[in-house]
Design goal:
This protein is mainly β. It has one helix and eight strands; from the N terminus they run ββββββββα.
Length: about 110
Amino acid sequence: MKAVSNSLMNPTIEKRKYPRHPVTIQSVFSSGPIRGEEGTIQDLSYEGCRIFSSTVPTPESMIEIQIKPRHGPPVFVPKAVVRWTGESAFGVEFKSVAGYESSKLARLLSVFPA
């Protein structure tokens, strides 16, 4: 675990296994009645991301996501669970990414600094 300090008096512990990469990537997601909703991905990692959208799914719902970088092939995540929600954003944890899609995600992440 990496120590992160919000202030000199209040350090916090970063619990993520993989670093978050500051990105701005278009996406499309679906969950139950929500179909083909557009969003903007930020804070992408190998195991999840933050998505800004006018439509926010409910916490703990399962969604599928297509990550659509400007350059390079899209990455399909068939199973991700919504871990938290806000007014116009939500965070997801990737639960299932196929081998080929996982390789595309790794290549995409290698382009962005952590």
